[in-house]
Amino acid sequence: MPELGHVVFYVRKLADSVRFYHEGVGLAVQGKIFNDRAALLSGGRTHHELLLIEVGDADGPPQGHRIGLYHVGWKVGDSLEQLKQARDRIEALGYPIEGQSDHTVSQSLYLHDPDGNEVELYVDNPSVDWRNDKSWMEAPVKPLKL
Fold first, then answer.
1. 14: CATH
2. What global pTM score does this model have?
3. Do residues 80 and 131 both lie within one domain?
4. Which pLDDT tens digit goes with each residue over 25-34?
């Protein structure tokens, strides 16, 4: 069965992005490659789920209505308490939470990384049996209050 293996982002400043994804999101730094111009990070499922490659000053991702990547979602735990902890870590690093949503099947925070890529931090709702009950797909998105 196919599964998403990893995502690669070009970044302006590697240290800033590593700090965001390591300290904020909670990914472990596996190592640096390409003469310390790139870093491999993992949540523990595989050798790396994220590769960051420093390119220096360059235009960021397009914003608004467009074709292409919208956001990347990172599961940060199994409870609302763990989502609150992720929120607190992100805010302590100085990144504002731009949205909070209850998707019935999951609860999510939305923000941007140092290069403007939209990031979703989420936890699944353990009471929803998404494999056998598809009703969550039609449920309206509700505001999330943490």
1. 3.10.180.10
2. 0.94
3. yes
4. 999 999 999 9
